[in-house]
Write a structure and sequence with these properties.
Blueprint lengths: L13 E8 L6 E8 L5 E8 L9 E10 L6 E13 L6 E13 L9 E10 L2 E2 L9 E9 L5 E9 L4 E5 L1 E3 L3 E2 L4 E10 L6 E15 L2 E15 L25
Antiparallel strand pairs: 1-4, 2-5, 3-4, 5-6, 7-8, 7-9, 9-14, 10-12, 10-13, 10-15, 11-14, 15-16
């Protein structure tokens, strides 16, 4: 798009723009560029002027690459060979010269957006509720927020709970894109074992999402652990209690 960018492993159709200047006194024409791309760099297109290029004139060579995910961060030196005619009006002197162009590939871990857990509770949005031993098919809701610079895409959550909890619906796909500063919710459904003791229990959610940064898809995996409480019921089994008993109309009864 012509905007400044950085190269990241896995980048697709990223442009490298090489700015050159004709420092000689003669005009150049018939410009041709060939490159020796580093391993993991695939040249998919190029554009540049073939001339004429007068003395003291700047010109660009634009090269489009796909980068493999296996490319390591660092600096790569790429030979670029230029072949051109010097002063085509007075003769046909063909010159070939090779320049070394440094290419920097950035560390993708520097570019991130975290999907942070803001709140976790039993119940649904706007309707929290307590749960007890033996509660069945109860909703567990998470509120999350994108606190990073880049939109989060394709977010997928998977809930892990202990043996006393049965995940009825333990996976959730979030909205396709969570903008920077945006928020979303996910609701799971769980049944709780009758024998569990009241108390606080740990749950873990695996976050799986990706970021699109300068033509690269950066996959992010992250575990979040949080606690929720299983409450002690105010009434325990047997749930029926005799309050009083009497014969109808309070009449006495005899053998």
């Amino acid at each position: 798009s012509g905007q400044p960018a950085v190269a990241l492993p896995g980048a697709s159709n990223i442009m490298l723009s090489i700015e050159l200047v004709n420092r000689g006194e003669d005009t150049l024409s018939g410009m041709k560029a060939s490159i020796q791309a580093p391993s993991g760099f695939k040249l998919i297109g190029s554009s540049y002027t073939t001339g004429p290029i007068p003395s003291a004139t700047q010109f660009n060579i634009n090269l489009n690459f796909n980068l493999s995910q296996s490319v390591n961060p660092g600096t790569y030196n790429m030979p670029v060979t230029l072949t051109f005619n010097v002063n085509p009006d007075s003769g046909n002197s063909i010159v070939s010269t090779t320049i070394i162009v440094p290419i920097n590939v950035e560390d993708p871990s520097r570019y991130n957006s975290n999907l942070l857990l803001v709140n976790a509770y039993w119940g649904t949005v706007g309707n929290p509720r307590p749960v007890y031993p033996g509660s069945k098919f109860v909703p567990l809701t998470l509120e999350l927020s994108n606190r990073g610079l880049y939109p989060i895409q394709g977010a997928y959550l998977k809930l892990s709970s202990g043996n006393s909890f049965k995940d009825i619906v333990g996976q959730a796909d979030l909205v396709s894109t969570i903008a920077s500063g945006g928020s979303t919710t996910a609701t799971f459904y769980i049944s709780i074992d009758d024998s569990i003791k009241p108390g606080k229990y740990n749950f873990t959610v695996l976050e799986n999402y990706f970021l699109e940064v300068y033509g690269a898809q950066l996959i992010r995996l992250r575990n979040i652990t949080f606690q929720l409480e299983v409450f002690e019921p105010s009434v325990k089994a047997p749930y029926v209690k005799v309050v009083s008993s009497s014969w109808a109309n309070s009449n006495p009864v005899y053998p």
